[in-house]
Design a protein that fits this description.
- Pfam families: Asp23 (PF03780).
- It comes from Heyndrickxia coagulans 36D1.
- Belongs to the asp23 family.
- By secondary structure, the protein is α+β, with helices and mostly antiparallel strands.
- It has helices spanning 24-36, 48-55, 88-107, and strands at residues 8-9, 21-22, 41-44, 65-70, 73-83, 111-122.
- The chain has one domain (18-122): Cation efflux protein, cytoplasmic domain (Alpha-Beta Plaits).
- Strands 3, 4, 5 and 6 form a 4-stranded mixed beta sheet that branches.
- A hairpin with a 2-residue loop joins strand 4 (65-70) and strand 5.
- Helix 1 (24-36) packs across helix 3.
Length: 136
Amino acid sequence: MAEDNQMLEMHHDEDGLGKVEIAPEVIEVIAGIAASEVEGVAQMRGNFASGVVERLGRKNHGKGVKVELSDDGIKVDVYCTMNFGVSIPAVAQEVQDNIRQALLNMTALEASEVNIHIVGIQFDTQKAEPEFQAEE
């Protein structure tokens, strides 16, 4: 469980109802979904544990995203694989814009940095046609 100093406190008008805190994991999930929605992103990079969890049927939306909270603001690092043939700078810019907009819409928070790390290219793999051997 995240410690209190790891939580991001929302500063809105004080109405006496209490405070709202957002865990960094929530920002990771929002950024992960926003990045994977962009056309041209093949997949997000995960680790062995997230791969096992996905094979068991549970989708890990925060994989491939690292969120750092500091005095300078929110820093988001996204690690993804692109489809072959896309314009990497254009898709990366779209991923950055989509993440910024999703964070702003859902949390009213502005990210100070959204860094995109391209860790691979996915090629379209066509199924090889089975070779038929002539019977003798």
